[in-house]
Design goal:
Helix content: 40-55%
Structural class: alpha/beta
Number of strands: 13
Protein name: Sugar ABC transporter substrate-binding protein
Number of domains: 2
Radius of gyration: 23 Å
CATH architecture of the largest domain: 3-Layer(aba) Sandwich
Organism: Paenibacillus kribbensis
Distance between the termini: 34 Å
CATH class of the largest domain: Alpha Beta
CATH superfamily of the largest domain: Periplasmic binding protein-like II
Strand order of the largest sheet: 8-7-9-6-10
Length: about 425
């Protein structure tokens, strides 16, 4: 709190009284509102179905904290990061906000997020830091301090449209998996047959969870278990880049970045234009509302004979260091990621999995998708962005540079070999 406001000089006597009162306090206390409600803002991304899920938590929070009102501020995903950075730089950002993994690294560097470690140890917090798996902290934990908390996890799975497969006369991924053959060859075979039937086989997207899931599914590495860059001499990793390039160049996959902006992956899937796409659980609420859509999950196809780690996108809930109501904002953040918060969002057909073991059991109890167990398996096996195996999120700006290079490959402007060479130069320079 001392970092963003200066003490008003009230005189030596009042200062001493203030310090004595603070010394007697054993935990942070919420500000006195003198009968007036504190009004906070929570900024999030998401489709309309996701926004309804977020609101459930705020309703539960306000019921337990009647002196606080929270306004939910949804922002389109493609505008989210830039708007948030602009708001915080201008000291007029939301009190509490969602953050992407690389974004929080930038905000920590800029000292724009409130440290949460001390608050999480206090009685005012609804959750403790030790309740969370260590592997999900990623760039939100630095030098022993915590700047953001994971409210949920979204292990990557592949969604497949059963109607598209049935009409094309193509065996489903689950049928391949039941035979122990859901690997890259099966993926190529399925997408080729869907393409021959006049459909798109798979939508390739250009962001970290896709690259890493493909690389790991081949037993490859971009970074090793110590966070050291190894792609330059990791043949399994290089092979994955060649496979991603080949799938798009051969037409087995269509690159989302090459399509008109109004042609989204979720819309194509729901209109039966494409057989498969990859995402976390965030698309489930939207897809489940479509009565004419019949879909299921399948684990990422593996070339090693076993299910390999998948990427686990996580959001971080962080607090604006310049919030005029820091204690209430931290209280909201802690409630949002607590067992109560996770259950409020996720039990009734949520858009993610929990990060707390105590919440996970109740959240998955009402799962309606036939093979939701793949989500659990992915969460147990996978890695968050900013972990050692996906270290780039720890380096501000590096993820954006990698994304720009990958975009050229997916657009066919450079092949896999040229892409790997450029990545060697970019990453080696950034992680010296």
């Amino acid at each position: 709190m001392d970092d963003y406001m200066s003490w008003i000089k009230l005189g030596f006597f009042l200062s001493v009284l203030f310090l004595l009162a603070a010394a007697c306090s054993t935990s942070p206390k919420l500000e006195s509102t003198e009968g007036n409600k504190v009004r906070l803002t929570l900024q999030v991304w998401g489709n309309p179905a996701e926004v309804k899920v977020y609101q459930r938590v705020l309703d539960a929070f306000e019921k337990e904290n009647p002196n606080i009102e929270v306004k939910l501020v949804p922002v389109p995903g493609d505008q989210y990061e830039q708007k948030l950075l602009t708001q915080l730089q201008g000291s007029r950002g939301p009190d509490v906000f969602y953050s992407y993994e690389p974004t929080i690294a930038r905000l920590i560097e800029a000292k724009q997020v409130q440290p949460l470690g001390e608050f999480l140890t206090s009685d005012a917090s609804d959750v403790k830091a030790e309740d969370f798996p260590e592997g999900l902290w990623g760039p939100a934990k630095r030098d022993g301090e915590i700047y953001g908390i994971t409210p949920d996890s979204n292990p990557m799975v592949m969604y497949y449209n059963k109607k598209v497969f049935k009409e094309a006369g193509v065996k489903t991924p689950q049928e391949y998996d039941d035979e122990g053959k859901w690997n890259w060859d099966a993926f190529e075979e399925v997408t080729s047959k869907l393409k021959a039937a006049g459909k798109q086989g798979y939508i390739a997207e250009n962001w970290w969870a896709h690259w890493y899931s493909w690389v790991w599914s081949n037993g490859g590495r971009i970074f090793d278990e110590q966070g050291k860059y190894v792609l330059d001499h990791n043949e399994k990793g290089k092979e994955a880049f060649r496979f991603m390039y080949d799938m798009v160049s051969k037409g087995n996959a269509v690159y989302l970045g090459s399509l008109p902006k109004e042609q989204g992956a979720d819309a194509m899937f729901m209109s039966n234009q494409v057989g498969m796409l990859a995402a976390g659980r965030w698309l489930e609420p939207l897809f489940s509302q479509n009565q004419n859509l019949d879909f299921d999950y399948i684990y990422w196809p593996s070339n090693t004979g076993k299910n390999e780690p998948v990427a686990i996108p996580v959001a971080y809930v962080a607090v604006n260091k310049n919030s005029p109501h820091l204690q209430e904002a931290m209280k909201l953040a802690s409630f949002y990621v607590s067992v109560k918060g996770q259950e409020a969002r996720l039990v009734e057909g949520g858009n993610a999995m929990g990060t707390l073991v105590a919440a996970d059991e109740s959240i998955m109890k009402k799962a309606t998708i036939e093979h939701s167990s793949y989500l659990t398996e992915g969460r147990n096996r996978g890695h968050a962005h900013g972990s050692a195996l996906a270290y780039d999120a720890q380096v501000p700006g590096l993820n954006s540079d990698i994304t720009e290079t990958m975009d050229l490959m997916f657009l066919g402007k450079q092949d896999a070999a040229a892409t790997i060479e450029k990545l060697n130069q970019i990453i080696s320079k950034a992680v010296k």
